[in-house]
Design goal:
globular; 458 residues; four-stranded antiparallel beta sheet; mainly beta; 39% strand; five-stranded antiparallel beta sheet
């Protein structure tokens, strides 16, 4: 098992580069900070007004996406799932390990080796502005998580703390210090006062913002990633020994009969996350799929067939559905993300058989064959992952029908950054992707072509 010293060395390998680049970037960072002052976060957190007509400034228009990139028909497939770079956000002075969209979809938070959390306005098509720099950490920021109402943010750092922030005021609310490096953090969507985090000291901690650390559980390996069920009653963890474990918050214990070894080689799990709910509901489909990035260069996806966690604790929990390969994950904290858009309401037109062979022009010159694509319009589920080879891998993992097993295929391999891509995250309702990289940047990607279908009448 990796030591804390090894983890620090791994992440801080870019520190000298960050220092050398700091002076060159300081003026730009200063300008970004001063430019951020006039912006009012309260306006972004408020419920948006209905557009009065004309250009709304949203990203979900087929016309705007195509016009923005000057896309030609042979540069994207006819389902609009090939992503192209929209913008590059540069203000960090070190590797960026995490970037997460807020649930409201109007903000993006990024965390970096430079110890800062930056907040960005992502409501405009051009020139996303830095809104705030949250600079209270003393070591690198490895993970962030938003509250369900987008009003609060928690950040996890190697300074042994998790910090809670008031987003509108851009102020520190509370800081919880524990032994070990904090590896991951997640809000409970059921209670915005509660959040959970895992550490290199093999502990999971539950925090209530009204009472600091209120409960802890001891694991037998470093906790690299965690997922909290929508009701806040269960936690799934991925650890450095390759185990997926489920913890019952009410019972205050690990549920051993549904713990699962991710791979026989016991490679460390770097990230886990669940698929979005169907149609925005927190119901039976919530968290049906669980994706796990692993140091053996495999991204495994588990299928629960309904809830990720159920009270039955039966033997049918989290059956391996499929794995995707190609990306490089070994020894790096690579993260992945699902996209389902606004549940059933966002659909993509799948091509007819005449487009069975597609050429995706994204710089690598590769052709992807697909002889088993459906001919009909259907809900689309996408899975993207970062990679240590500087690329983003985008897979279609859609279901042909509810009882089917996904037949994943690679939609696009994107030459995304000039260094490792640590994190990707999809916008909560639109096929917009953010990527965070060791090259100090965050990039925003969106389809060259997309079309929204009318919502079916009930």
């Amino acid at each position: 098992m990796a030591s804390e010293a090894h983890l620090r060395a791994q992440y801080e390998s870019g520190a000298s580069a960050a220092t050398s680049g700091a002076s060159a970037s300081s003026s730009a960072a200063t300008a970004a900070t001063s430019a951020a002052e006039p912006f009012q976060l309260s306006e972004l957190l408020a419920t948006p007004k209905a557009p009065s007509g004309g250009d709304t400034g949203d990203f979900d228009s087929r016309h705007h996406a195509a016009a923005l990139h000057g896309a030609k028909p042979d540069e994207y497939d006819d389902v609009g799932r090939v992503l192209s770079q929209k913008s590059e956000l540069r203000a960090h002075l070190g590797a960026v390990y995490t970037a997460k969209f807020s649930p409201c979809g109007r903000l993006l938070a990024s965390g970096s080796l430079d110890t800062k959390v930056l907040l960005w306005d992502v409501t405009t098509k051009f020139n996303q502005q830095q809104l705030a720099a949250l600079a209270q950490h003393a070591q690198l920021v490895i993970d962030v998580s938003w509250s369900d109402d987008s009003a609060a943010l928690v950040s996890a750092s190697y300074d042994h703390t998790v910090k809670l922030w008031d987003v509108e005021k851009s102020q520190l609310v509370a800081s919880s210090e524990v032994p070990g490096l904090v590896q991951c953090v997640s809000f409970s969507m059921a209670d915005s006062n509660q959040y959970f985090f895992g550490t290199s000291k093999s502990c999971i901690h539950q925090v209530d913002s009204r009472a600091d650390v209120v409960r802890s559980w001891q694991n037998d390996a470093m906790v690299n990633s965690l997922y909290v069920s929508p009701d806040g009653q269960f936690i799934v963890t991925g650890d450095s020994k390759g185990m997926l474990k489920t913890w019952d918050v009410r019972m205050d214990a690990c549920i051993d009969d549904i713990s699962k070894l991710n791979d026989p080689g016991r490679h460390a799990i770097s990230h886990i996350h669940a698929s979005p709910p169907v149609d925005g509901r927190r119901g039976d489909e919530d968290g049906r799929f669980l994706a796990a990035n692993s140091y053996d260069n495999l991204l495994r996806v588990y299928d629960r067939r309904s809830k990720l966690i159920s009270s039955s604790h039966g033997q049918e929990q989290m059956q391996l559905s499929f794995s995707v390969t190609g990306h490089k994950n070994k020894n790096w904290p690579i993260k992945s993300a699902f996209f389902r858009g606004e549940g059933d309401k966002y659909k993509l037109m799948l091509p007819s058989n005449r487009h069975a062979q597609r050429k995706l022009t994204d710089g690598d010159g590769e052709d992807f064959q697909d002889t088993d694509r459906p001919d009909t319009t259907q809900e689309t589920l996408l899975l993207a992952t970062g990679s240590a080879d500087n690329k983003i891998y985008l897979h279609d993992v859609s279901l042909k029908h509810p009882n089917a097993r996904p037949a994943p295929y690679l939609v696009q391999k994107i030459d995304a950054h000039s260094d490792r891509v640590y994190c990707v995250d999809f916008h909560p309702t639109e096929p917009i992707l953010a990527s965070a990289s060791a090259d100090f940047s965050v990039k925003i990607w969106l389809p060259r072509s997309s079309a929204r279908l009318p919502k079916p009448k009930s």
